Amino acid sequence: MKHFIKVVFILMAVLFWTIGSGVQSFAGSQTPTATAASTDQKLITGDAKVKKPPAIKSTPRLKSDHKPVLSLRPPDLTIKMMKIVPANPTTLDTIRFSAFVVNAGIATAPASKAGIKIGGETYPVIFPKLDIPGGSSSAIVRFLKIERPGTYWVKFIADVNNDVSESKERNNIGSLKFRVVEPALPDLAVVNITNNSNNCLVYTIKNLGGPIPSSVNRNFIGIRFIKNGGEYGITNLNIADPNCNLCQPNGTVTGTQCHIGSTTGPWFDYNITAKVEVDYTNKLEESDESNNSMEEHTLAQTSPYGG
Prior knowledge:
Layout: H1 2-28, E1 43-45, E2 48-50, E3 77-85, E4 94-103, E5 112-118, E6 125-129, E7 137-145, E8 150-157, E9 173-180, E10 188-195, E11 200-207, E12 221-227, E13 230-239, E14 252-258, E15 273-278, E16 293-297
Antiparallel strand pairs: 1-2, 3-4, 4-7, 5-6, 5-8, 8-9, 10-11, 11-14, 12-13, 12-15, 15-16
């Protein structure tokens, strides 16, 4: 009996399995119809599940008034072409310090201030500057007389107060080192003296040394006519040098002086010597004191009355 019941259960299980397979096969042969009810709806074919591809989003168009923004390189103020004139200044010189503030960027640098600082100065001398377009420059110049010898620095500064937003902020300063010295002593020398065809004295005096300070008496030149070791006739002193050529290094004065002879009565002289002197009062300190004069024997001169 138990064996029979077992067989019956097996036959019933086979029957139900067969019926289930047929229903499943029928369902798999149907083609489902897709609908557009929802973008999240899933299509089912048998046991497979397929997601609907995402919708393609359109790119929004730019408005008609939209303009692209060009990116310009910011300003870049720097110092170029620094110069000191004279290059080797002395305590007598008024020195010229100059440089250019250059905008090495593309965008215009707005108004700012530049400065020049010399030696131990606490603050620079300020030079207001207008806008400087990209690639352009603006000069700064300062004059100063330094009366104390020594070694100094000059600093040229762009954008002193850091008013300009720049691509580089560490190139706003340029520096030069220079030395101020005592000037060389002047050296006034009579370099030539001759007689011309008219029996007149022609002389040349030159400053072979340094400049002569303006505080010195500039009546440098004197001419003396000498007979038998003593002055003869008149002494012509303070020969004019109106432009003070001798005050400058290599300055030269050339002049002519005719022999006058005795101031009274007829005269007839053969033995006259002309002596040209410079710094005849010896008040000017010079590097060489031995070349201040030169002598020349004049030609014989006759009396205007004959004889």
